[in-house]
Amino acid sequence: MKPCFTTSVAPSLRFSARVLSTAHAPRRWTSKKNVRMFPKAMAPANGAISTTSRRYEGVSWSAVEALCNDIFQKAKNQNFDVILAVSRGGLVPAVLLCEAFELRNILSATVIFYADNGEQFFGMTEPRFLAFPSADALEGRRVLVVDDVWDSGRTAQAVRSRVLRAKPKDVKVAVLHYKPDRNIFPGEEPDFFSAITTNWVVYPWERPSPKTPQVGLDSADSSVKQGSADTTSTSVA
Asked: Does the keyword section mention Cell membrane (predicted)?
């Protein structure tokens, strides 16, 4: 098992020795300079936070890499057989974690709940599955469910419950960001998470969408700062 990533997903996703050798506290990733207030885009759906009060937090590619590495370090002794990526937010983290765990078996579950602008999709109150692996692919396996964020927890809990119906040997949930203040499941939380936040997180793979608030894209954030692991890179390879 590798101690760190050697992924070749994209040139901008490669780890540097400096990033991998730096210990990161969970709250380090909430950078004030990358948190902005955006005006209202549309009326929020039931249960959604008004966009007039939502705070957005931009995350760079290098931060994503370090967050994934943190999850790997916490979960590397779990002996997972398969990683189940929650599409779309969990796809990139799942690929990075597959590289770290040296796993070839990666599956995906397509779930809709939130739109690109952060509103609940057409006012949905529960996640909806568009695609899910067969029970045979999960039965008797140690499954790691990977998503980008645990907000209310509805998506992660829905996926976990459906995996359990397939009778796996074990199932764990890993997310990059956890929002305990938004969690609606008392006594439940992700098994592995790298950072705690109260903001709406904008990941680098979301930026091509015209509906995504462009956080951290000003001139001060447009270049990688040498010698710093907490950098903001706005280029997408």
From this structure: no
